[in-house]
Structures are given as structure tokens and as C-alpha cells.
Fold these 2 entries.
Entry 1:
Amino acid sequence: QVQLVESGGGSVQAGGSLRLSCLASPYTYCMAWFRQAPGKEREWVAVICSRGGGAVYADSVRGRFTISEDNAKNTLYLKMNSLKPEDTAMYYCASGDSLGDLKRGDGYWGQGTQVTVSS
């Protein structure tokens, strides 16, 4: 019943771009991207809770990443531009009732897709 399928990760040189996607079911009010690098805490990246509006970004990615949804509102995207080595992490799609819930680990989570940015 629950399905969060991510794709789009890969290896890219610094300054390059990638677009991640997440096919989500159920598609809840708040959809978000998180990332986690080895030895680091899970980090919130971006969230959208208003079906095309109200996108909010972490300071580390603001201006470089764009979160969006398709017209069917069942696929979440993360367009990543000007990638930096510090963006290297496993990226996770998450679905829940609020960003607060997701930050607490509540909701549904995808399997993750690896993004590696080389210097």
C-alpha cells in the first residue's frame, strides 16, 4: 500500500546538476527531501506542503535546489544545480502530515538514492 520510489541519483562533478524524483503513494500534505552522509545526522533539505506553493529550503541549498511536484501531485522532484562536494549524501524522499512530524521521523520514507559530487 505504501510506496515511495526514488530515482535520479548518481555521480557528478562539482558544479553539475541532477534531478531526483520520488513516486509517492500515499501522497500526503507535506512532501520533503532529507539527506544523510556517513557519520552525520540526517539533514532536512526542502519541503513543500501547499501543492506547488510554500516551498521552504534549508540554508545550505537555498538558491541551488528546487523542490516541485507534477500536475498529478503524486511525484516529487528535487532539481539540484551547482552541486558541491558537501552535497554528497544519501537523499531520501519523505511523506507526512507536517515538516515537524517528518523531522521527528514520523511518516513514510523512501529507500534513498545516492548522490556523489566529486571535486
Entry 2:
Amino acid sequence: QTQLVESGGGSVQAGGSLRLSCEYSGVITSNYFMAWFRQGPGKEREGIAAIDSGRSPTYRDSVKGRFIISKDNDKNTLYLYMNSLKPEDTAIYYCAADRGVVPGTSLWESEYNFWGQGTQVTVSS
């Protein structure tokens, strides 16, 4: 059994902050590549942040400087710290994992085989 369970979503006013968590279990180990994706209303799912086994982060330009991805291997948990939230950040946020990704493709949906169920983030203006 392999699971990724997101939590921490909710409603927040523009400019506010939220921390998302993704607890993983099963075949996912500390050396897996992990990422956060989101899908807003009427939009395609997009990768917003990823972290490799060396804990080197990659961010989509739209969230760079506002979001921070991190991973606590002792707690088997991936985090996304979201600051200065904007209404455009409203989406369902998913965590994803894979044993490895092709270099330069860590924000590509097709690179990940394991997915969580998603957690809703709503940012009001």
C-alpha cells in the first residue's frame, strides 16, 4: 500500500499564508522525488514545486519567492509553505512522488506515478 495524504488546505484572505502537508507511506522512501501540483478551476494541473533526493528545490515562476517546499524524512512528510497568497493560487493542491525523474522535468505531471487525493486551497480577495 502506497499513500500520499495531503492536509492543511483551507480558506485564506489574499496576502495570507498556509502550510500544506503530505504524509507518505508504502514504497515511497526518503530518496524519492516529490512535488506539489495544483489544478485551479478550468485549468490544467501544473507543477509548482519539486524537491529531489538531495533536497534541491525547483519552483514554478509564479510561486517563486512566495512558496517553499521542504521534506522531513523523519516524519515522512512533504511540506509546502505558502506565503503572500493570491486569488490565482486558488486550486486543489496535490502532492506527488516518484522514484526518480528525468533531469529538468521535476514539474512535469507525467514524471510522477504516485499521487495524493488533493486538498483545497481557496484564496479570497
